[in-house]
Amino acid sequence: MSTPTTAPEPAADDRSTPWSSTVRRTADGSLEVGGVDVRDIAAEHRTPVYVLDEADVRARARAFVGAFTAAFADLAGADVYYASKAFASVAVDRWVHEEGMHVDVSTGGELAVALRAGVPGDAIALHGNNKATAELERALRAGVGRIVVDSLGEIEQVADLAAELDLPAPVMIRVTTGVHAGGHAFIATAHEDQKFGLSLASGAARAAVDAVLARPELTLLGLHSHIGSQILDLSAFEVAAGALLGLRAEVAEQTGTLMPEVDLGGGYGISYTGADTPPSPEEIAPALADVVRRSCADLGTAPPRVSVEPGRAVVGPAGLTLYRVGTVKPVVLDDGGTRRYVAVDGGMGDNIRTALYDAEYTAAVAGRRSQAPAVVSRVVGKHCESGDIVVRDVLLPDDVAPGDLLAVPATGAYGRSMASSYNLIPRPGVLAVRDGQARYIVRPETEEDLLALDLG
Which of 43, 332, 333, 384 is catalytic? Predict the structure, then answer.
């Protein structure tokens, strides 16, 4: 048995809290988010449902933009990109752009959402290790601010397409620095044996620079690095930034081209259970600015404009998933102990991260306050898999019963974006709440939607 989590009570001024800033307990013990009682949400909208705190998303976006603008004011400035893979919707892309963020996309679908949201092309970056020609053409026609190239072959692909369309193609080169950090091995993205980027150690990154400079259709903006996700310790960024800035200085010395930009990626962590205290934007930005300042001084180069991509850290804490309990079943374990299984009306279809990454979450009874003693419980879903686990071990009141509402915080990132209709269970909708009002920004899927795709 793993160490059970215990959901802390909401506290807006606590950086370790997994709840969004507007979550609180009402006088009679129910949870309220964005001024809306979860009992009203469950009564009006079916569960499960993703609940997204709009004010919290906007506040986190503003905090990152403000912190990086201030920290890099005496250098060459900074841009903050929302990594839309965390959760992309027209409303969210519009919110973050209105708060000063640019938007990073990695597929044609994410690009389509950003454009539908009104994000101008020059505020969009296109990533991806296997971009289709159609995706690249749409990006070029939209005038995206950067295409992050991921292989030598893609450099030729983008250059040929830009020549054919007679359109400018600003590019950055994704560099694998060998520095990796964060959680599960599947989300560490800078070690050598993985699909992303061009290796610094092998010389592939340097070869990519030469390949871009050899194609007049391309404009070389700079270098990009992403070292992982759910990173709580900033020290790895210092090493990765030093490696990028060193390559930038080497290229300038050998070719006379000093690249104007460097992207240091993101992957900043959040609190999922209350056990971690993630760094704040006001801590992250000055630390990275200091690294750039010192490294460029040592290298004798002018500082570049810096960009970062804190996707999960903007939207993750702003979301919770609201479930209704269906069955409660005690199971006797091999060691003679007992584990209580609390089954809810969602599961791995709406949050695959526990099964995929062994991710840790917590949960709380949401519709009432309980004084019953806490019991170790496993929150599971209704999918036909023994690995269908939402929260592996959590302390929940002994009186949890069918019909109770259960809230799992910190699901704003990767819940809906990685959701599936496994077992033909429709995916939940995303309900935005703010100032006592609730509205769907992504409607829930229906059985009719699933049947409409089935051609018989």
Answer: 384
